[in-house]
Design brief:
By secondary structure, this protein is an all-alpha fold. It is built from eight helices and no strands. The chain has one domain (3-200).
């Protein structure tokens, strides 16, 4: 097994770990972003988990694409680009939430009371929902292509699609946090399933 095949295989395990991290991060995420909550240690560790899910998601998605690249279509390629772009942008916001906003919560609590975790600040209020849309559309395109080409188990890709729809709907802000948490768990299960399937796959085979 060459370096590329080894890296691709292990990226599946990373994708599975990323799924576990994103599920845990949203199940444990505090419901209210008050200065007291944001400045607390629990807030930090939840967002460290989320950061791990984002970085793992980027690497895992590239590995899934490497496995799928010989059979992919333009929609799969566009989906991969959208996913990686969205996860990168979300990582920037998460960095603020994890490491900068807690300091602001102590030094300028009125700012946090006004803007919360930070997603309503200036241009972020526009970029954040656009990024969320890229995230959802990216996973739908990418996973639909995987399901069609059967490079990984189609049910795993379809479960991820269901999860990202519920997850994205919950993050819209129009539905209760419980929807976000349910969606994140479904989405996480899909990522874990696809990741484990990639990790266990025969690198010489092009389809499952």
């Amino acid at each position: 097994m060459g370096v590329t095949e080894t890296a691709t295989r292990w990226s599946g395990l990373v994708n599975a770990v990323a799924g576990v991290c994103v599920g845990l991060a949203y199940v444990l995420h505090p419901h209210h972003g008050t200065p007291e909550v944001i400045s607390g240690t629990f807030w930090l560790w939840v967002h460290v988990l989320f950061a791990m899910s984002l970085l793992g998601g980027i690497f895992g998605t590239l590995g899934l694409f490497a496995r799928h690249s010989s059979d992919t279509t333009w929609s799969g390629l566009v989906g991969m680009v959208l996913i990686v772009s969205a996860l990168t942008l979300i990582f920037g916001l998460n960095y603020w939430e994890a490491f900068i906003n807690p300091v602001v919560a102590v030094e300028a609590p009125v700012f946090v009371e006004t803007y919360g975790a930070g997603e309503t600040i200036g241009l972020v209020a526009v970029i954040f929902p656009v990024t969320g849309a890229l995230f959802v559309v990216g996973y739908l395109l990418f996973c639909a292509d995987i399901a069609r080409q059967k490079t990984l188990p189609p049910p795993s890709a379809r479960l991820t699609m269901v999860g990202v729809i519920v997850f994205g709907a919950g993050l819209s802000g129009f539905l209760p946090m419980a929807v976000v948490q349910i969606g994140s768990v479904i989405f996480a299960l899909g990522l874990v399933w696809m990741g484990v399937a990639l990790w266990k796959a025969d690198p010489s085979a092009s389809a499952i």
